[in-house]
Amino acid sequence: MTIFDKFQPLAEARQQIEQNASDFLNVVMEEIISGTEATVNGRRTILAGSNNYLGLSFNSDCIDAACQAAREEGTGTTGSRMANGTFSGHVALEKELAEYFGRQSAIVFSTGYIANLAMLSTLVGPGEVILLDADCHASIYDGCRLGGAEIIRFRHNDAADLEKRLGRLENRNTHVLVVAEGLYSMLGDRAPLADIVAVKQKYGAYLMVDEAHSLGVLGENGRGLAEEAGVEEGVDFVVGTFSKSLGAIGGFCVSNHPELDLVRYASRPYVFTASSSPSIIASTRRALQILSTKPELRHRLWDNANKLYRTLQDLGFTLGPEVSPIIAARFENMQEALAFWSGLLERGVYVNMVLPPATPDGRCLLRCSVSAAHTPEQMEKICQAFTDVNDGK
Amino acid sequence: MQLNEKLFKEVTAILIPFVPPGQQITAETDMIADLGLDSLKVMKIVETVEDSFDISIPLNILPEVRTVGDFAVQIQKITGEGR
Q: Is A167 at the interface with chain B, CB within 8 A?
C-alpha cells in the first residue's frame, strides 16, 4: 500500500488512452510559429484548440509593450499585491478595465482561476448560498468550496429551474449569489442572461457572470454576453481572464459595488499569490486597447466560427446548440474520438479532446476553437482535414 | 436520526433506473462501491430527488454520503428543514 494507490484508476485510464492515441497525453508545441501555428511531432500544425480568440498573443504592439516592461521593471514582481507587488501598471490596468466595462472598480488577479477562487471564496461565506449553473467551470466550483457557503446547482441554462430554487430559499433570509458564464467552455453555448437577470432581480439575489470566453467575442464593444444581452446593469460582478482574447495570463473582477475593494483585504487567493509580472500587465493593457478599438477582429472571428460550424454540421457531427468560436463535436465512443483526434493531428490540425467526466453529458468532445488570426487558407485546411478524416481518407 | 421507511422506499425507487438490474438496495448499500455510481449518475440522481421532493440538495452534504441510508437521512433532514 502506498500513498499513490488511489491513482491506480488514472493509471489504467492513461494506459487505455495511450493504446488508442499514443500522442494524446504527450503533445508538445516544439516550436511556436505564430498565434495559430506550431510544430508538433516535427510537423507544421494549425492550432485549432487554443483560446487565442483575437490572435493577440502574437500582436507586435503587445510583444513590444511586454519587452519594454520586462527591461524597465524586471521579469517578476516577486511579491503579493498586498506587499511589494503592486506596480503602477497593475493600478493602471485596473483603472482601464473599470473604464472599459463602465464600472466603478476593478481588481486584477494573477490568473483567471485565481479570480474565481478569490471572489467566490470571499464574497459568500458560511450561512450564505451560491446557486451555480451545473456546467460552470472547475474554478467556479473550487472557489465555492473554498468559501464554506452552501452550494446548490441549477440545471444548465435553465432560468425556470433557477427560479424554483430561489423560491425555495425565500424564507431563509440569507444572501444568495447566482453564478453563470457568458459562453460555456465545453459546448460554446450562451447563458440565457436576460432571463437569469430577471429572476435574480425578482428574488433580490446577486449575480456574477464569468465572461472568460465571451470577453472580446460577444457584444458590440466586446464586453461579453452582458453587453450583447443588454443587461450589464443587472450583473453585479463580472469576472474574466487575460488568457483568452487578451492573449496573456491573468484575471479580473469589475463591479459597481463600491465595497469591491474590500475583497482585497479578505481574499486569501489574492493576498497569498505573487502578482502578475510587469510584462504580462503591459501586454494586457495594450491588448485591451486593441480589443476595444478593433471590432474587425471580432467580425473575422465570427466569420471563421460560422465557416467551421457549418462545415462540421454538414458533415453530420453533433455540435453544440449554437454557433460560437468554440465548436465541439460530440462522440459517443472514446476510441472513435481518439482515432479522429489522431487523424486530424496527422493531417496537421490540432484540436482539444475532452473526455468524461470533464464533459457536460458524459460523452467525448473534439473541442475546436477558432481565432480571428486564422487565415482563410488555414480555415480551409481545418475544414478539409475534418472532411478527410470523416471520409476515412 | 430514525430513518423514515416511506422516504427510504421513495429514494430506492429513484435509484433503481441508475443501477444494474436486480441489484438489491438496503440502507447499508454503498452508493459507489456496491452500486457503481459515477459522478455524472450521482448528479442525475440528485436532480431527480430534488424534483421528486421539491427540495434543493446542497453539494456540501455529498461528502458525508456513503450509503443509501446516509443519502436518505440527508434528504430527510432537508425536507424537515423545509429547504
A: no
Tally of domains within chain B: 1
The closest of A224, A234, A239 to A204, measured between CA atoms, is A234
- How close B58 gets to chain A, by Cα (Å)? 5
> DSSP assignment of A184-212, as one string?
-TTT-PBP-HHHHHHHHHHHT-EEEEE-T
pLDDT in tens, chain A (393 residues): 999 999 998 999 899 888 888 888 889 999 999 999 999 999 999 999 999 999 999 999 999 999 999 999 999 999 999 999 999 999 999 999 999 999 999 999 999 999 999 999 999 999 999 999 999 999 999 999 999 999 999 999 999 999 999 999 999 999 999 999 999 999 999 999 999 999 999 999 999 999 999 999 999 999 999 999 999 999 999 999 999 999 999 999 999 999 999 999 999 999 999 999 999 999 999 999 999 999 999 999 999 999 999 999 999 999 999 999 999 999 998 899 999 999 999 999 999 999 888 888 788 999 999 999 999 999 999 999 999 999 987
Those residues whose C-beta lies under 8 Å from the C-beta of residue A232, and which sit 6 or more positions away, are A101, A102, A223, A226
B24 touches chain A (CB under 8 A): no
Q: How many CB pairs under 8 A join A and B?
A: 29
CB B44 within 8 A of CB A137: no
* This prediction's pTM: 0.96
Which residue in the set B40, B43, B60 is minimally distant from A356, CB to CB?
A: B40
Q: Which amino acid is at A13?
A: A
Put simply, whether A155 touches B (Cβ < 8 Å) is yes
Give the nearest partner residue to B56 out of A152, A171, A361, using CB atoms: A152
Q: Is A175 assigned a catalytic role? A: no
CATH code for the domain in which residue B9 is found:
1.10.1200.10
- Among the CATH numbers 3.40.1500.10, 3.40.50.150, 3.40.640.10, 3.40.50.970, which is that of A60-293? 3.40.640.10
Residue type at A336 in one-letter notation: E
The reply to whether A151 touches chain B by the CB within 8 Å rule is yes
Burial level of A52, CB count in 10 A (0-12/13-18/19+)? buried
CATH fold label, A9-47+295-391:
Aspartate Aminotransferase, domain 1 (3.90.1150)
Domain that holds residue B58: 5-81
Catalytic residue among A90, A213, A307, A374: A213
Q: Is B32 on the interface with A (CB under 8 A)?
A: no
Question: Is the ipTM reported for this complex over the cut 0.85?
Answer: yes
Active site residue A185: yes
Selecting from A150, A171, A172 the residue whose C-beta is nearest the C-beta of B60 gives A150
Enumerate the residues of chain B whose CB falls inside 8 A of the CB of residue A151.
Answer: 58-60
A169 contacts in chain B (CB < 8 Å):
56, 83
